[in-house]
Amino acid sequence: MATCWPEPIVSVQSLSQTGVPTVPNRYVKPAHQRPVFNTTQSEAEIEIPVLDMDDVWGKPEGLRLVRSACEEWGFFQMVNHGVNHSLMESVRGAWREFFELPLDEKRKYANSPDTYEGYGSRLGVVKDAKLDWSDYFFLNYLPSSIRNPSKWPSQPPKIRELIKEYGEEVKKLCERLTETLSESLGLEPDHLMKALGGEGKVGASLRTNFYPKCPQPQLTLGLSSHSDPGGITILLPDEKVSGLQVRRGDSWITVKSVPNALIVNIGDQIQILSNGIYKSVEHQVIVNSGMERVSLAFFYNPRIDIPIGPIEELVTENRPALYKPIRFDEYRSLIRQKGPCGKNQVDSLLLSR
Ligand code: OGA
Ligand code: NI
């Protein structure tokens, strides 16, 4: 893996703050990747499913709802998810304050492509690639042995404590969801957790995304189309500004987030483990000229050093194994070289028949 970026890193936030009237060429996407803003009335009414988790946990009908959301959308919003609402607001607010710090302060945490940990502005190390209109901060969270306190921001003063508190709550939510996903696939509640490598061995990381105002949002993307490489993602969206779009056939559905909801999406590893029953669906982020946007993506991932392939019970005569097994560290390093690339990475594991 490369240890430095192929080109000097430019903070998109600083670029935006200079008041550039046009988007520099390296952020201008080819025409077929540019976002479509004027959706028709009927498309505008379609929404990703919203699940009240009080109706899901431990309820057979709930398992059916989860299953259909994961098969059809790969995404759903959760209300009554159990994570404290004021904690959600505080941790997002603390990250907002972090991004408001002077560039020199943030640059103390500048990241490199070997671990991605820290403050950065690009995904992938392909030279001359078109870049996304965003900055981010990436932190390893689990297993706790890989936590590196010197990589965690020290400003604003309360941020470290808030990240820890939020991380603990979301980790518990992911454990509960893992059981639910397992049961919704017709497996024993602990089957999926075992397949991910077991509690205490699974990985998790947090990426806080910062999408600055953009003078020409129609030419670029805050985050290019991708599916998440890991297991389950829990997204805490901005409370005021939308931007996340989920692929539905040939169109993109802009998610209207419900107040205090968390958004779940299935990552490539669950698609692989479920033998393609559950889908890691492509998504992207659009930006706008009036408001900056902050989101926190908590990635819950398999243990890095075991092969991840379709769960045996989900391989049948009618549904032979679709994917060849791969270790998550290997998979992740491929993604880290290429950056966001739709579903190309998971599709490359398809067994031909
Ligand atoms: C991600 C992601 C969506 C968002 O970080 O992988 O898809 O709304 N983020 O920021
Ligand atoms: Ni994503």
TrEMBL record:
InterPro entries attached to this UniProt entry: DIOX_N, IPNS-like_FE2OG_OXY, IPNS-like_sf, Oxoglu/Fe-dep_dioxygenase_dom, Plant_2OG-oxidoreductases
Ranges where the Fe2OG dioxygenase domain occurs: 202-302
Presence of keyword Oxidoreductase: yes
Keywords, ordered alphabetically: Iron, Metal-binding, Oxidoreductase
GO molecular function, one term: metal ion binding
Pfam family, one: DIOX_N
Domain of life: Eukaryota
Family: Belongs to the iron/ascorbate-dependent oxidoreductase family.
The protein's name: Fe2OG dioxygenase domain-containing protein
Native species: Arabidopsis arenosa (Sand rock-cress)
